[in-house]
Specification:
three-stranded antiparallel sheet, hpI Integrase, Chain A, elongated, 10 strands, 399 residues, mainly alpha, DNA polymerase, domain 1, 16 helices
């Protein structure tokens, strides 16, 4: 393997020069790679020497583009849920392909991925969308790695670096969820309950005091609700296409206790709940007894209730300026855009009544307690600050 400077004259008589790495891969094929700077050529030579010795080197000429690898990745993901597959396709077609689709996999490294993140932010992608797209890119590269199309997964390298620097939570969330910003306050919850119309009250009340996901609420059958025992069993959900299926993870199958207010409200609702073919099926169906669309719940149920309850914020235009109507009066909109805010409230409520982090994980249906900790640790009482408990513990130790 050698690094040398090459000079040549173009047809127009211009003198050009570049640094060339001349090497042989693990199959003995002679290959050349050109660089503008010597330091880049030296870095490539050193890295390639190790890869060839380990038998893991993939030359640019033998590599495929990100788009080609993405197509292979999607084909292997046929067994996934339709919603998950749709999300992967959107990330690939709308974000990954336009920006880095033509790059060879062998050209991807940590700086390339960091530059891709910057481009996504410059293109006005939200922080959440940037995380989701990078996560999908990491899955794409993991699939390519298993196929032998790439040696390393730079997305995973970035994640390892950030974790080692203690930046895992910042990388995942960007900031902590805030009560009154992301999580409704107790006062707001009381106003929401009082403002809810009788048709939407059972659903909103159940969402508030069980923390069920929107898909779990929409797919909840009466057969899984035990009003006598005061609990419900999560065994299925309805996806965005109104298809009934199991929860996304095994932890999603769980039993959640019901407060007396929810039990009484559901008992009353059961008497007038719409039926399908003359029989009770779903707890929160549409008027014909079928699965209710998620958008209907949000746009016809949640947001009008928030507006009626006065749980609102000033509406802003695309440039972030407060909006006004034709008469110059301020325009308001619902403060919380989706049911997930009520799920966040349930977690904060559980923390407030003294449940452990493990208990909250179980009730929320998180597959890993790390998810619960990353999201909600900051809303739990800090035991280290409770000097009275420490003093009591010390006295108990020494008798």
């Amino acid at each position: 393997m050698s690094v040398r400077k090459r000079k040549w004259i173009t047809r127009k008589g211009e003198v050009k020069e570049a640094w060339v790495v001349d090497y042989s891969d693990q199959q003995g094929r002679r290959l050349l790679k050109t660089f503008e700077k010597k330091k880049d050529a030296d870095t490539f030579a050193a890295t390639t020497h190790v890869e060839v010795r380990e038998g893991t080197h993939v030359a640019d000429s033998a590599s495929v583009t990100v788009t080609e690898a993405g197509n292979l990745w999607l084909k292997s993901a046929d067994g996934l849920e339709r919603t998950t597959l749709d999300q992967y396709q959107q990330h690939l077609r709308l974000h990954i392909e336009p920006m880095i689709g033509r790059l060879k996999l062998s050209q991807l490294n940590v700086p390339t991925i960091r530059n891709f993140e910057d481009k996504l932010r410059e293109a006005k992608r939200s922080p959440a969308m940037v995380r989701y797209v990078i996560r999908s890119l990491g899955a794409l590269l993991a699939d390519a790695q298993e196929r032998g199309l790439i040696v390393r997964n730079p997305v995973r390298e970035i994640k390892r670096n950030r974790r080692s620097k203690g930046g895992k939570q910042a990388d995942r969330r960007g900031r902590n969820l805030e009560i009154g910003v992301d999580i409704p306050t107790p006062a707001e919850i009381r106003r929401i309950i009082h403002a809810a119309e009788r048709h939407w009250l059972p659903l909103l009340l159940t969402a508030i005091f069980t923390g069920l996901r929107a898909s779990e609420l929409r797919g909840l059958p009466w057969s899984n609700v035990d009003l006598t025992g005061g609990k419900l069993h999560v065994r299925q959900r309805a996806d965005r296409y109104n298809k009934i299926g199991p929860p996304k993870t095994r932890a999603g199958k769980r039993t959640v206790p019901l407060p007396p207010m929810v039990v009484n409200t559901l008992r009353e609702w059961k008497l007038k709940c719409p039926k399908k073919d003359g029989k009770l099926w779903l707890v929160f169906p549409n008027g014909e007894g079928n699965i209710e669309w998620h958008t209907n719940i949000v746009l016809r149920g949640l947001q009008p209730t928030l507006m009626k309850a006065g749980v609102t914020v000033r509406a802003k235009d695309d440039k972030g300026r407060p909006m006004v109507d034709q008469d110059g009066n301020p325009v308001f909109e619902a403060k919380y855009t989706g049911l997930h805010a009520l799920r966040h409230f349930y977690a904060s409520w559980c923390a407030g009544i003294g449940l452990t982090m493990k208990a909250v994980q179980t009730r929320m249906g998180h597959s890993n307690i790390a998810v619960t900790m990353d999201t909600y640790t900051h809303i739990f009482p800090d035991a280290d600050d409770d000097s009275k408990k420490l003093a009591d513990g010390e006295r108990a130790l020494w008798g």
